[in-house]
C-alpha cells in the first residue's frame, strides 16, 4: 500500500490527501433537504446527507489526488448509521483508485490492539469464514502505550500489506504539554520518532516503510528534525490551511527525492464553497469548488517544495 | 455519574468492574452453534453470539457489581454488526442499573474530540432533533494530544453529567517506553497525572471528580504516588488477574476512605468457565462460573484493601 500511495503521488504529482471530515454544518442545504425529505431528520438522514456529500467530492477530485483520509469521529458521532456512511466512503474511495487513510487514532495493547487492527485493516474469522470489515489501507495510531500497542497493528499490516501513520508530533497548540517534554535533553516526540523508525524497519516497501508518522504542519522546525530521525517513514502532515500551516513551511517534511510526505487538508477542501475565495461557485456547486481548491492546494504545495 | 458509580460501589461493597471484552474464542460452543444456526457463519452470527454471551453474564452478575466496561475494539473487529452488539450491551447494562464505562481509548483534538464525545457520551443534533448514540456513562481517553484533546470531552461530560478515565500509566510491559521517561527528575506519567487532577477540578461530583485516571494494577509503587497526585480522581485499575496484578498490590490505589479505585477484570470473569478453578461448572453454565468468579474477586479485593 505504501508503494501504491507513492505511485499515486508521483502519477498525479500531488503529495496531498483530502480529509473527508464531514461536519453536518459543512453539508450544503440542498443535500440535507434531499436526505431529510427521504429519511426525516434522523440519524439515517444525516448519514445519507454526509454520504452524498462525500461521494460528490470524491467524484469531482479523485482524478487529481492519490488519497483520502476520512476522520472516523465525524461518522462515529452519528452512531451506527454514521459508521455505515464511513464504510461506504472507504469502499467508494477504493473503487475510484484512491488510497484510504482511516484517521482513527486507535491505540490499546495486545489482543485489543489486534482487534482494532482486524477491524480496520485485516479480516476476522467467524467459524470457517473470514470477513474484511472497514478495510482501510492505512490507519493512524496513538503511540502512548508503547510497542505492546503498535506491534499487533504491524503484524496485521505485514499480513495484509497495509500501513500505519503513528502520532509523533500533532498539529494542535497544546501538543507540547507532553510531546515536547525534555528527556535527557531531547523532546519526547523525537524519542517517539525513533521508535517509529525502528518499528518501520520491520515492514519496508520498496523505498519507504509501510509504517509512517503524523507530524503537524504547524511545527516545521520539528518536522525538519523528525524527517532526519525517520528517513524511511512517510510523514502524514495535518494542519495545513485551516489550522494555520503554510506551504512555505512544508519543505522540511520532504526528502531530497521530493517524496516522504503527504499533506492533508480537510475543511479547506471539502468546505471550500464556504470560503470567500470560492464563493462564486455557489453551494449547489460545492464539489466544483472542492476541485478548484484541490488544484490550488497542489500548486501551492508543489511550488513550495520545488528544489 | 461518578456519584452513581460510587453509590453502586458502596451498596454492593464491590470496587470492581467486569470487562465485557468478548473474544469469539471465549464464547461457549453452544452459543455459537445457536447463533450460527440462525444467521450462518456471518458477522451477524458472530455479533448475535457475543450479545447472548454478554447478556447471560450481565444477568448472572448485575446484582453483585456496580459497573461493566465493554472494550469497543472487541466489537469493532466485527464491523457494523459488532458495533450494534456493543450498543445493545451498553443499553442492556444500563437497564440493569449498571454504570457503563466504554473502554474506547479515543483521543483527537478540537471538533474531532468533540465528535467522539458526542458519539459516546452526548447527543448529536440533526436538523431540529437530537439523538443519543452509544451513550456510555464514562469513556476512557488517551492524553497524548494534551488539553486540546481532553477539553472537548470534559465539556460534553459537564453537559451530560458524565465522566472520563484518562490513561496515565497503563498495565502493559512496554508502557514505560514513553510513560516512564524522566522529565526534570519525574516520570511522564506523574506529569500526566497532574494534568488529570487539574482537568478534574473543572468537573467535580460530591466527593470525587467526574474525571478519573487509568493506572495499571501491575505497577503498585507508581499507583501509590499517582493516588497522592490525583486525590480526587477515581482510578480505574486494569491488569488484575490475567495480566498479573495481585489483590495484595491494590491497596495503594485506594484512599483512606476505602474509595477512589475500581478494579477491572475481563477474561478472569467472562471466561472463568475456562479456568481449572471453575471448570466444574461446565461450559453450558459459563454464566454461573462468572458469578462465582465475581464473588471470589470481590472477596479477594476487599480482603486486600481492608485497613
Walk me through what this model shows.
- Two copies of one chain form a homodimer.
- Chain A is of the alpha/beta class and 307 residues long.
- Chain A has twelve helices and twelve strands.
- Chain A is globular and about 60 Å long.
- The two termini of chain A are 27 Å apart.
The SS-based structural class of chain A is alpha/beta
Strand count, sense and closure of the main sheet of chain A?
8 strands, parallel, barrel
Largest interface, C-beta within 8 A:
A-B, 72 and 72 residues
Compute the CA-based radius of gyration of chain A.
19 Å
Q: Work out the helicity level of chain A.
A: 40-55%
Mean pLDDT of chain A, to the nearest integer, reads: 96
The DSSP helix count of chain A reads 12
How big a fraction of the residues of chain A is strand? 15-25%
> Alpha-carbon distance between the termini of chain A?
27 Å
Could you spell the SSE succession of chain A in H and E letters? HEHHEHHEHEEEHEHEEHEHEEHH
Oligomer state equals homodimer
Total E-strand runs of chain A: 12
- The largest beta-sheet of chain A arranges its strands as 1-2-3-6-7-10-11-12
What is the global morphology of chain A?
globular
Parts with pLDDT < 50 across at least 5 consecutive residues of chain A: none
Amino acid at each position: 500500500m505504501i508503494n501504491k500511495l507513492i505511485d499515486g503521488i508521483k502519477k498525479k504529482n500531488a503529495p496531498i490527501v483530502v480529509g473527508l471530515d464531514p461536519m453536518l454544518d459543512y453539508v450544503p442545504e440542498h443535500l440535507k433537504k434531499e436526505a431529510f425529505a427521504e429519511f426525516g431528520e434522523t440519524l439515517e438522514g444525516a448519514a445519507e446527507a454526509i454520504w452524498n456529500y462525500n461521494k460528490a467530492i470524491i467524484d469531482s477530485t479523485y482524478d487529481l489526488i492519490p488519497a483520502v483520509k476520512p476522520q472516523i469521529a465525524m461518522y462515529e458521532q452519528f452512531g451506527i448509521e454514521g459508521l455505515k456512511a464511513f464504510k461506504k466512503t472507504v469502499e467508494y474511495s477504493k473503487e475510484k483508485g484512491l488510497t484510504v487513510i482511516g484517521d482513527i487514532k486507535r491505540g490499546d495493547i495486545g489482543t485489543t490492539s489486534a482487534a482494532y487492527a482486524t477491524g480496520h485493516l485485516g479480516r476476522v474469522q467467524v467459524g470457517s469464514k473470514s470477513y474484511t470489515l472497514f478495510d482501510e489501507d492505512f490507519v493512524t495510531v496513538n503511540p502512548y502505550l508503547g510497542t505492546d500497542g503498535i506491534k499487533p497493528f504491524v503484524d496485521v499490516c505485514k499480513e495484509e500489506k497495509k500501513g500505519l501513520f503513528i502520532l509523533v508530533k500533532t498539529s494542535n497548540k497544546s501538543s507540547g504539554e507532553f510531546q515536547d517534554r525534555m528527556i535527557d535533553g531531547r523532546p519526547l516526540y523525537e524519542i517517539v520518532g525513533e521508535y517509529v523508525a525502528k518499528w518501520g524497519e520491520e515492514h519496508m516497501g520498496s523505498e519507504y516503510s509501510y509504517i509512517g508518522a503524523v507530524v503537524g504542519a504547524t511545527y516545521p522546525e520539528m518536522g525538519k528534525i523528525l524527517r532526519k530521525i525517520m528517513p524511511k517513514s512517510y510523514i502524514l502532515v495535518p494542519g495545513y490551511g485551516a489550522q494555520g500551516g503554510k506551504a512555505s513551511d512544508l519543505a522540511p517534511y520532504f526528502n531530497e527525492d521530493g517524496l516522504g510526505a503527504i499533506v492533508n487538508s480537510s475543511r479547506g477542501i471539502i468546505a471550500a464553497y464556504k470560503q470567500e475565495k470560492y464563493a462564486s461557485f455557489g453551494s449547489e456547486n460545492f464539489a466544483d469548488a472542492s476541485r478548484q481548491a484541490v488544484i490550488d492546494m497542489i500548486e501551492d504545495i508543489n511550488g513550495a517544495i520545488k528544489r
